[in-house]
Amino acid sequence: MRVYMSVLEIRWVFFLLLLISCKDLDEAQIGSGTDYQPLGLGAVWEYKVLETNYFGESDQETNQFFYKDSIASQYFNEVGEQVFLVHRMRSDDRRAWGQDKVFAYRVSKNTLIRTVDNVAIACLVFPPSDGQRWDGNIYSALPENIFSLELYEKYPVGGQDFNMTAKVVQSEEDDRITLRDNRFEVYAKGVGLVESYYEVLSYCTRNDCVGEQIISTGRFVHLELIGHG
């Protein structure tokens, strides 16, 4: 026996299917958390940078400059993951820009992976949850490095307040005798990376200076977002 459907019934079924698919899509977009680092062709972020390199006791060099990161191209890798190539430009005055480096972002297994100089870092997990912990070096040959996540409703960076932020603490160590290793990144929902803090220093350990926190070698780099689009 054949069953016939009226035009009205067909339209009603089509509407239900469309409603279900839209609901699933909205939940996926809202719940995934990937908008803490939006990825798309043409996206641009501009940062103010403070950098200090320590070459020895009382021998250091400090520079202030700017980075402009833009997603210039994309491709699919061998396992079908979308890879976004970010071109980083550098300038001393925000007028003349020169190429600094190219790095890549991709999302794999609910993880944001950034590859710089052939080293892949699992820099953020989705959806972000307060207290989450994971190995930031799980996609590289480097030793295990446990990252932890802190969520903030509001976070100040460079005179701006960003809502819905995820702070990834990569290292928080200072024995005040041999080394200091403080590193973290902050991501804002709908914006992306808004702050990066890198401070890895070695202290003098000679008998005449041990425990005095005299820096012998190391590097400090602080990025603060000043514009995006």
Mean pLDDT: 89
**Overall helicity:** 10-25%
Regarding quaternary structure, how should these chains be classified? single chain
For the record, the count of structural domains works out to 1
What is the overall shape? Answer: globular
Give the number of helices.
1
Q: What is the count of β-strands?
A: 12
The structural class is: mainly beta
Compact description:
With 229 residues, the chain is mainly beta.
Summarize the structure in words.
The chain is mostly beta strands and 229 residues long. The chain has one domain. 11% of the residues lie in helices and 57% in strands. The chain contains one helix and twelve strands, in the order αββββββββββββ. It has a twelve-stranded antiparallel beta sheet, with no helix packed on it. The longest helix is centred in the N-terminal third of the chain and has 26 residues. The chain is globular. The termini are far apart. 16% of the residues are buried.
Which features would summarize this protein structure in a list?
229 residues, mainly beta, globular, disordered N terminus
Topology:
Layout: H1 7-32, E1 44-56, E2 59-76, E3 82-91, E4 98-108, E5 111-116, E6 119-125, E7 133-135, E8 146-157, E9 160-174, E10 179-188, E11 192-203, E12 215-228
Antiparallel strand pairs: 1-2, 1-12, 2-3, 3-4, 4-5, 5-6, 7-8, 8-9, 9-10, 10-11, 11-12
